[in-house]
Specification:
This protein is an alpha/beta fold. The protein contains 12 helices and 10 strands. α2 runs parallel beside α12 and α10 runs antiparallel to α11.
């Protein structure tokens, strides 16, 4: 079922989760053991991140050879397996960087063949393509990727195909309550978001945040611009002191001083864990009281913290 239909047909706010594919050489069963725990909470959908391959050039027998390193298990294979084994609605991430338009088209056709209806269109991290390559072969921006997916929904492929079958993807995009770190200001970032929605995006999932007031301002700004698609808050459970330093640095988000103080006053690991989870529960309760359609949890493929938050919300 499409995410937009899940929202429309749900009488209560939903739960959804995001997972990260394990690195190559890791058993898929380790991931599925965590997922089986999270499935007890009947998530409306599960998004799976995608990562461009890390390439390096090495010399082998006097010849330079390009190798791909640290490759994670395939996003789409995980989605297809989870759909079959767990009955969850999968939402694979599609990214621009590291993938050509042709590769993207092939992936979309595979997902369509397997009955996957939802995708999340993102720019992704990685080096920029040169101007000539970007213009001809890759989607440089998330809005370009959304346009490609929407064209396929209209039956328009990269190469002309007579009576081409139309895909029917529900397209999600990312939103940034505290501004994307590369945007010069919030208005510019919101303009980019509107461009993605105008290109055909059907829903927005936000980057993780810890200050609900920032989210409420963002939601008001989105409405002011005439963006009418659902905005789903993305939440990362806190449960380690390291999160207070690492998460703001990596994800360019701010953690309110009151939240930091509530965690920093403890020294024992179990007390820190409990304080972080309690803070996340309080944040989620406030969001639900302010009418969000659901909450998307960045589980990082670890079940326990998200489970503890969900148990707290059900209590």
């Amino acid at each position: 079922m499409k995410v937009t239909d899940l929202i429309k047909n749900s009488s209560v706010p939903f739960t959804s989760i995001e997972i990260i594919p394990p690195r190559k050489g890791t058993s898929m069963e380790t991931l599925f053991a965590e997922l089986e725990v999270l499935m007890r909470y009947k998530p409306a959908f599960m998004s799976v991140t995608s990562h461009a391959h890390e390439r390096s050039v090495e010399e082998v027998d006097g010849k330079k050879v390009e190798r791909m390193k640290h490759k994670r298990l395939d996003t789409n294979a995980i989605c297809i397996a989870a759909q079959s084994r767990l009955g969850v609605e999968p939402t694979p991430h599609l990214i621009c960087r590291g993938f050509t338009k042709d590769e993207t088209e092939d992936v979309l056709l595979t997902l369509h063949f397997h009955g996957i209806e939802n995708v999340l269109a993102l720019r992704g991290d990685g080096p920029l393509a040169d101007a000539q390559t970007a213009a001809s072969f890759v989607n440089e921006h998330a809005s370009d990727l959304v346009e490609q997916i929407e064209r396929m929904n209209d039956g328009v492929y990269l190469d002309p195909v007579e009576r081409a079958e139309k895909t029917d993807f529900c397209i999600g995009v990312a939103g940034y309550p505290e501004k994307h770190f590369e945007a010069p200001d919030m208005e510019t970032d919101l303009a980019y978001l509107k461009k993605k929605v105008d290109a055909g995006a059907h829903f927005i999932i936000t980057q993780m945040f810890f200050d609900n007031e920032a989210f409420y301002r963002f939601r008001d700004d989105v409405a002011r611009l005439g963006i009418q698609v659902p905005v789903i808050p993305g939440i990362k459970p806190l449960y380690k002191k390291q999160h207070l330093e690492v998460l703001p640095r990596i994800f360019y988000t701010k953690i309110p001083q009151s939240v930091q103080d509530s965690i920093n006053r403890f020294d024992k690991e179990e007390d820190i864990h409990r304080a972080g989870i309690d803070s996340t529960i309080a944040q989620c309760k406030d969001l639900l009281a302010h009418g969000v359609p659901g909450i998307h949890f960045y589980s990082m493929s670890v079940a326990k913290p998200t489970s503890e938050v969900l148990n707290g919300l059900m209590a």
